[in-house]
P1 family peptidase
Amino acid sequence: MSKRFSLLALAIITILTSSQAQEKRGRIRDFGIQIGILPTGQHNAITDVAGVSVGHKTLIQGSDIRTGVTAIIPHQGNIFQEKVPAAVFVGNGFGKMMGISQIEELGNIETPILLTSTLNAPKIADGLIDYMLNLRGNEKVRSVNSVVGETNDGGLNDIRGRHVQAKDVQEALASAQSGPVQEGNIGAGTGTECLGYKGGIGTASRKLPESRGGYTVGVLVQTNFGGVLEINGAPVGRELHNFYMQEPKEAHKVDGSCMIVIATDAPLSARNLERLAKRSYIAFGNVGSFSSNGSGDYSIAFSTHQSVRIPHSSEQIERNAPEVGNDYMSPLFMAVWEATEEAILNSMFMAEDMKGINGRTVKAIPIQETVKILKKYNSLHQDKLPRAVKQ
C-alpha cells in the first residue's frame, strides 16, 4: 500500500469518525417519531399557550461548572398582581421544590416558575424575590411565594459550588420570550442526565380540535432520572444495553428527578389543574421511568385564561369565572400525556455529549441507532396511520 493511499485512507476514516462523533441532533419528529394522535401547536412548545415565555441562563465554565436556570413566565403582565390558578402533583417527593404549600393552600402562583440545580434552589428563590419586589406596582409588597423547582446535576456539575448567582436569575427572566424554545443542554438542563443518556430541557404542545374546546396544552420538562428507556413501546434502552440494573455492571444511576411544567389556556380551577398535572405522570412511565427512591418528581400546572386570573386585591366578595366541566376534561388529559412524553424525548434528542466534573462524560442518545431500533419494532412514522383527530 502506497504512502499516499494510506494517508488518503486515514483522512477518510478521520472524516467518518468525526461525522459519527457529531451526529446530527434534532427533535423527535425530525426523525419520524410521533407520540399520540393530537396535532401540535405552532412551535410544538409550551410557548404555544398564548402569553407564556421561556428564558434560560446557561453556565458552562472551566471543566466542572455545568448548570443554569430556566424561567417560565405565565403571562406578560405583573403575575403578582394578576395571579394564575395552579396546582402541584407530587409523584415522588425526594425533591426541594419551593412554594408548594401556598400553591396547595390558595390554588395559585404569583411568580414565574424557575428551574435550577438542587443546592442552588434557595439562591434562585432569593433572586426571584428581588425580581418580584422590583416590578412596577409591587412597591408595597411584603410577602412573595417564590416557585422554584430543581433536579440534581451533580454528576456533571460542581453542585457544591452553588455557582448560580442572582444576576443569572435576572438574565434568565430578562431573556424570556415566546416562540421556539431552546432545548437540550441549556439552562437548568445543562448538567442533567436521563435514562442513561444526556438529559436536559424539552418541550412540546398539543392543540385540541374546536369541537373539544380548541384549547392548547404546553409542557416543558427538566429531565434528570433513570429507568429503562422505551419509545412508542420499543425497548430502546434494552436494545442499546444501557439501563438500570443491567448485569453484570449497572449502566447508569437511577436517582435524579424530573420537573414537569404544564400551561394551558383552558379555564380551569386549581382542582382540575391538579387532575391535569396527575395525568402527566402517565408519560413518565411510558418512557421507562418508575420514580426511584431518590427521584424528586413534580408536575406543576397553571391556566393562563384571562377570566380565571386572580387579582391580588379586589373589592368584590365573590368571584365568578368560567370553568371547563369535569365531563369535558378527558381531551385535556390526553393532551398533557402526549405533550409530556414528547417533551421528555425532545430533551434527550436535542441534548449533546457533555464532559464535566472529574472528567466524567455523559453521552447523548445515539439517534441513528435508536431509529434503527424503532424501525425494527414498527414504532416509526405512526403519523402515516389513519388520523382519528381532525381540527
